[in-house]
């Protein structure tokens, strides 16, 4: 369907003629043939309005010359021939009409400024600055019908011309960008450009509609409004576009289609990786946190497909993808992988002192007392901070955690998920004192449920697959995989955490065989810690965070367990 067929009269010319000052453009009258002196006499706008007959004849002469393609002649019939000719030529070159039909409609009055795209006019402003007297003009409406070789349907719209009287007694069209089209403002351009069809609907992976999910509103709007500009040219249509550069549109370039010349080839509905059943469960869990901000992501480990993501409040930041906070002890999954690769085994002794010092501060554990007989298994399932810090100082290097995070788990790579996301940041510290905090998911580490769900997915499948929202999207690979021995040990530790460790509190709600890791992230000593939980079951991995939710199994754990219970039934 063609749009732009009926467009209201612009207020631009009206604002100049009926409400504001006006610069006296000096034109040379060179057509009188009355001698050299008269030929050089300036031709200027006068305050006296033209008669209705004179205004109509001036408008008709201008429109006739433009329609015939005599752009030089048409420009001479305006009060600013240079600008008029440049603009008319740009219209001819960029819009490329096969024919232009223009007809005077008769005198009209100024519309309400609210009906105009812009109530301000550069000409009026410059005239006021010049301090010249305000002339009185006549507004003449006209009808335009622009034809294109590609279509038999003309582009029809209504326009308006401001007509003023000149010092030689003739009429001239006051030049403004809106003469060409009532939606065109100063600084904007008009041209025919390729246009592509957008999906008629965006559905989940099974074809179910995705409307009604608050967390998906931004993604759906983005997909529906963003045409695939890198699509196949054979699928492109074309349209008349008015483009506004960033310098005149508040820092963001915009485009408005005012007419479809050629319809683009239709495209089928877009199926996302999202699963409506899991999305519904995710939305319920983030809104069930007693008003605390929360977010959750579910990923299919075998593909990297994002099956659900949700955040609350849904009108705020998409914390699931764009958040960036410390993940607490969920990061011990990566630290443990680094320790295992360094030769530590599940039965290696990892004593758990009651406190240890990091950068001059005492670090304690959630579990009271000292446990000198702990092994790696004990330290992991009970999440002993001091064990990981002490053993990390002994066998790891400051760059060990960032290295394995990037090379094996893909954290620190640039992800292209299909939606704006924050890529996990694990800085390489210059010394072991700084790195020690990172071993327990504190310090300068910043991540989100997207990153930590991907960690659980990588452990479950053994291969990092970058999360994506659109099936078939390119996925950035990691450099390598964990060895089978390390991977099996890591899986065993996460399963034992559910069976008898810090995740055992939510074990009844978790599917059998689930592996998990809790996290309690201290981000502000004056408020409750953030609750984190990452887990997998079958071909599904889920991570959640709840701001101020306390221990990992207190808030994030139950949320994750309920989503895992829905299962991946794709």
How would you describe this structure in keywords?
single chain; 570 residues; alpha+beta; five-stranded antiparallel beta sheet; four-stranded antiparallel beta sheet; 18 strands; 20% strand; disordered N terminus
Furnish the topology, listing elements before pairings:
Elements: H1 12-19, E1 27-28, H2 36-39, E2 42-43, H3 52-67, H4 71-76, H5 81-95, E3 99-107, H6 122-130, E4 138-148, E5 151-165, E6 171-174, E7 189-195, E8 202-203, H7 217-225, E9 237-244, E10 254-262, E11 270-271, H8 276-286, E12 294-299, E13 306-312, H9 319-322, H10 332-341, E14 355-358, E15 361-364, H11 376-381, H12 385-395, H13 400-407, H14 432-439, H15 449-461, H16 484-500, E16 515-521, E17 530-536, E18 541-546, H17 556-566
Helix pairs in contact: 8-17, 10-12, 10-13, 10-16, 12-14
Give a description of the structure.
There is one protein chain. This protein has 570 residues and is of the alpha+beta class. The chain has helices at 12-19, 36-39, 52-67, 71-76, 81-95, 122-130, 217-225, 276-286, 319-322, 332-341, 376-381, 385-395, 400-407, 432-439, 449-461, 484-500, 556-566, and strands at 27-28, 42-43, 99-107, 138-148, 151-165, 171-174, 189-195, 202-203, 237-244, 254-262, 270-271, 294-299, 306-312, 355-358, 361-364, 515-521, 530-536, 541-546. The strands form six sheets. Strands 13-12-18-17-16 form a five-stranded antiparallel sheet. A four-stranded antiparallel sheet has the order 3-4-5-6, with helices on both faces. The longest helix is centred in the C-terminal third of the chain and has 17 residues, at 484-500. It is elongated, with a radius of gyration of 34 Å. The two termini are 38 Å apart.
């Amino acid at each position: 369907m063609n749009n732009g067929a009926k467009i209201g009269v612009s207020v631009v010319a009206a604002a100049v003629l009926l409400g504001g000052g006006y610069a006296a453009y000096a034109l040379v009258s060179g057509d009188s043939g009355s001698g050299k002196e008269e030929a050089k006499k300036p031709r200027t706008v006068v305050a006296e309005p033209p008669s209705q007959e004179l205004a109509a004849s001036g408008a008709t002469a201008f429109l006739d010359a433009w329609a015939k393609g005599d752009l030089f002649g048409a420009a001479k019939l305006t009060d600013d021939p240079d600008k008029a000719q440049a603009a008319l030529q740009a219209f001819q070159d960029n819009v490329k009409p096969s024919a232009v039909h223009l007809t005077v409609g008769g005198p009209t009055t100024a519309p309400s400024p609210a009906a105009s795209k812009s109530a301000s006019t550069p000409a009026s402003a410059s005239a006021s600055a010049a301090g010249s007297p305000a002339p009185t003009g006549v507004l003449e409406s006209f009808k335009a019908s622009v034809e294109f070789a590609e279509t038999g349907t003309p582009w029809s719209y209504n326009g308006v011309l401001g007509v003023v009287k000149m010092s030689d007694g003739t009429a001239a069209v006051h030049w403004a960008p809106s003469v060409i089209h009532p939606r065109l403002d100063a600084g904007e351009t008009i041209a025919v450009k390729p246009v592509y069809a957008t999906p008629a609907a965006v559905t989940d992976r099974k074809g179910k509609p995705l409307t009604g999910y608050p967390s998906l509103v931004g993604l759906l709007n983005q997909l529906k409004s963003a045409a695939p500009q890198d699509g196949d040219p054979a699928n492109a249509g074309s349209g008349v576009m008015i483009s506004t550069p960033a310098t005149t549109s508040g820092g963001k370039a915009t485009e408005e289609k005012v007419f479809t010349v050629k319809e683009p080839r239709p495209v089928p509905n877009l199926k996302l990786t999202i699963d409506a059943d899991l999305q519904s469960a995710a939305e319920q869990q983030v809104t069930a946190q007693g008003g605390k901000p929360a977010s959750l992501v579910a990923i299919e480990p075998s593909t990297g497909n994002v099956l659900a993501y949700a955040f609350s409040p849904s009108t705020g930041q998409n914390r699931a993808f764009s958040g960036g906070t410390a993940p607490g002890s969920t990061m011990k999954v990566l630290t443990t992988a680094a320790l295992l690769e360094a030769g530590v085994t599940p039965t290696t002794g990892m004593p758990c002192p009651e406190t240890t010092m990091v950068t001059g501060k005492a670090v304690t554990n959630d579990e009271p007392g000292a446990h000198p007989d702990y092994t790696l298994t004990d330290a992991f399932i009970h999440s002993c901070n001091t064990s990981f810090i002490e053993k990390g100082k002994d066998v790891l290097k400051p760059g060990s955690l960032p290295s394995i995070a990037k090379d094996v788990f893909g954290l620190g790579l640039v992800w292209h998920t299909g939606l704006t996301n924050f890529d996990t940041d694990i800085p390489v510290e210059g010394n072991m004192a700084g790195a020690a905090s990172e071993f327990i998911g504190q310090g300068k580490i910043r991540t989100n449920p997207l990153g930590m769900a991907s960690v659980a997915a990588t452990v479950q499948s053994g291969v990092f697959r970058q999360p994506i929202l659109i099936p078939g999207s390119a996925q950035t690979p990691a450099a390598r995989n964990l060895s089978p021995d390390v991977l099996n040990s890591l899986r065993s530790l996460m399963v034992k955490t559910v069976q008898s460790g810090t995740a055992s509190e939510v074990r009844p709600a978790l599917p059998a065989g689930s592996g998990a890791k809790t996290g309690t992230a201290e981000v502000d000593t004056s408020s409750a810690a953030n609750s984190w939980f990452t887990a997998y079951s079958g071909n599904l991995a889920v991570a959640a965070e709840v701001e101020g939710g306390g221990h990992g199994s207190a808030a994030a754990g139950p949320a994750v367990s309920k989503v895992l219970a829905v299962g991946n039934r794709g």
